[in-house]
Write a structure and sequence with these properties.
single chain; mainly beta; eleven-stranded mixed sheet; 3 helices; 37 strands
Length: about 325
């Protein structure tokens, strides 16, 4: 899908008087191409302004001069809201049309499986009753989907994966911009999800598609039941997540991270490789790898144990 920039700016309420250009998508400052629209809403990304390749950027007047001369500044004091309005232009059009998939050798597909368009299955794929496989989905060889798994459009599943009943992969992330009156405007989630090889995902998990780009579940990772992975997360290779783990948007886990039951992260942070988060641990900032953390906010496990002992001692003394 491509649109003239003037059409987009007219729809979102920005005055644009320059030479018209064609826009084919939206991306972050660092990832946008010369045919894409981007946005600036957070000063921590100020260093990316001078290097962006974006065709145009939604930006406040104060920072507009930092953009490259080739990039069009779309001046607004509500860049995030304008982004939300513009994202609708590039939302994938959902249809009820169904086509027979391209099927490899040795596949076992229940008659009650539903397909969208342009689906590709590798060899020896097993799809049990009630599964839905959306448009442009790819499923690698040897993968098993238990009953009632849903794969939204453009999801990619690797080889030798197991996905248990009720799991939904590729649903929209929880993204909204807010008007000055407190109304919530949907940011259309136009990325996808990639699940690499040898991943097992438990029952009733939800893995959100990226706003732009991709949400990744890297190879060898094992997810328990009832887990929420938000948009643009990157779960490292061979990570283990126990039941009811929740990752907020743009969380990055290094390889072999272990997260205990009901532990969770805030968004836009990194947990280093081979770190362990104890059950119910709450990660509020980026953490180094190779260590064990506990508590809320999550701190070094040994320190957390000493802290608990101190508190118990204080309570006993008061008695």
């Amino acid at each position: 899908m491509t649109y003239e920039l003037s059409k987009i700016t007219e729809h979102i309420g920005i005055d644009f008087q320059g030479d018209d250009i064609i826009i084919d998508g939206i991306h972050t400052l660092s990832e946008a191409t010369s045919t894409q629209l981007s946005f600036f809403t957070d000063s921590k990304y100020i260093s990316q302004l001078s290097d962006t390749k974006a065709a145009a950027v939604l930006i406040d007047e104060k920072h507009a001069a930092l953009l490259p001369s080739r990039t069009i500044a779309l001046i607004t004091d509500e860049a995030y809201l304008k982004l939300a309005l513009a994202s609708k232009f590039f939302a994938y059009k959902l249809e009820s049309t169904s086509e027979q998939p391209i099927v490899g050798e040795g596949c076992d597909i229940d008659k009650h499986v539903s397909f969208g368009k342009n689906v590709t299955l590798g060899d020896n794929v097993t799809l049990l009753a009630g599964c839905y496989v959306g448009d442009n989905v790819i499923i690698g060889s040897g993968t098993l989907l238990h009953p009632n798994v849903t794969l939204y459009h453009h999801t990619i599943i690797g080889s030798d994966c197991i996905i248990h009943s009720g799991t939904v992969i590729g649903c929209d992330g929880y993204g909204f911009a807010h008007t000055k009156l407190g109304e919530h405007v949907k940011i259309y989630q136009n990325g996808n999800v990639v699940v690499e090889d040898n991943v097992e995902i438990g029952a009733n998990c939800a893995i959100d598609r990226a706003v732009f780009g991709t949400t990744y579940i890297r190879q060898g990772t094992k997810l328990d039941n009832l887990i929420q992975i938000a948009h643009n997360c990157d779960v490292g290779e061979h990570s283990l997540c126990a039941a009811q783990v929740g990752l907020a948007g743009s969380t990055t886990l290094g390889r072999n991270v272990v997260m205990g039951g009901q532990s969770a992260t805030a968004g836009h942070l990194e947990v280093g490789a081979f770190a362990t988060i104890a059950g119910k641990g709450g990660v509020t900032k980026s953490l180094e790898g190779g260590r064990t953390y506990a508590g809320f906010p999550a701190i070094d496990h040994k320190m957390w144990l000493r802290l608990q002992a101190k508190m118990i001692g204080l309570v006993k003394r008061k008695k």
